[in-house]
Write a structure and sequence with these properties.
The chain contains 18 helices and eight strands. It is an alpha/beta fold. The strands form three sheets. The protein has a four-stranded parallel sheet, sandwiched between helices. It is elongated, with a radius of gyration of 32 Å. The model has no long low-confidence stretch (mean pLDDT about 90).
Length: about 475
Amino acid sequence: MYESVMALAATDEKEPVCIMTIMASTWGKTREICTRNQAILKSAIEGWGVCGTTTTFGDPRRAWVNTILAASGGSGPVPLYPPLSHAISLFPLNRAGSVWRGKGNLMLHTEDGSAIEVGLASSQQNKHTELAPGDPGLGKSVLINTLSEIQISSAQKNLPFIAYIDKGYSAQGLVQLIRDSLPPERKDEAVGIILSNDPEYTRNLFDVMYGAKKPITPEKNFMSSVLCALCVDTGTGQPCNPGDTRQIINQLIELAFKEYGENNPRLYRASTEELVDSALQDSGLYEKHDATWWARSTWFEVRDMLHNAGYIMAAQRAHYQAMPQLPEVSSMLGHTSLRDVFGTVQRDGSNELLLDYIRRALEQGHNDYPMISGYTRFMINPETRVIAVDLNNVAGDKTPAGRLKTGIMYLLAGQIAGGDFTLPQYRDEVLKQLPREYHEIALKRINQLDQEVKTKVMMNCITPGA
């Protein structure tokens, strides 16, 4: 005891030593309820992990009185004399607590196993991130699908916006469950897509927002990311000359849209898009101009005509035809503005010119990824809210080249499923880029995305052994 007292005296010179007791009480309308509450309270206090409790006292009445504020100058149990830091460590000050008490829609647990209430899609958070790592078979997909189901079941009038990027079909089951629960006229609100790297699933890498002639910032960033990924050296995991390559790619994108959006827009040709030809005939627009005018008309002009006439689906098809394609973009690497600045730059550790390497990489990308190298062929209904894109048939293997392919496919799938989720952040830029007649459609989508919850789910995005 003497040594303990001396140790506390030495500690008191550097840190206050406290005199402390901890008393807790509970109650109930019946003895059974009180006994149950006492057991719950005892378990909760011991759950702090650093102290024990007792329910045995020589004088129970005295122990009870000592729990009442200012009712006694003594103490029931033996006083504690901990240093202040030790006393504080007894309290659950760092213990996880829920901010959704009574308002949550999901019960999870903390690292030490205690239940914690969570509110998904709550106004108390700007963003909620869940990470579910683990080996195959541990229930990651079940957990993530459960989170999505809770959001869907908590929705009011409309389904929430959910973008699934999956490898393994688990999300397809959730989509089918949602579709089976919807009436026939609303089944397109949930769509499952199993990607295949063939022309049937072509989604032009250079598509921009309907009505625009050039990309807004997030669209340009996406194009740049994919093109830079095509230029990655699988031996290093980085593009050759990363800084120069990204500059070249960004300038290349600007040149392509200036060429095909302003200088030499693509001319309309009949029989290219059957839906467009039919809409022009049905609307009477074709008879308004002679053959000479039609020979010089561009896909942009046809798009605008059909849009103003109310043929939105056909106008969207015409819009797709006006966009540049990967082979055309790569051919612009010989443009004077690029040659003048980067014409003599060589690959690191090689005598090959960097522009020649990028051209070769993009041409190889055209051959390896036909699904991004032509005009967009499949369209997603603008009313769709839950989209699951499965990459099982297009993901690569565990080699460096295979992991690169998988990464590119995740980029593409993310753009397909939830590429417009960030539109509200670029509202002013969108309105500046679009002609006024397209503002109504764009604002409708932006307002929807701005006012409603958006969820992006990436499943199996880390390959074991990668």
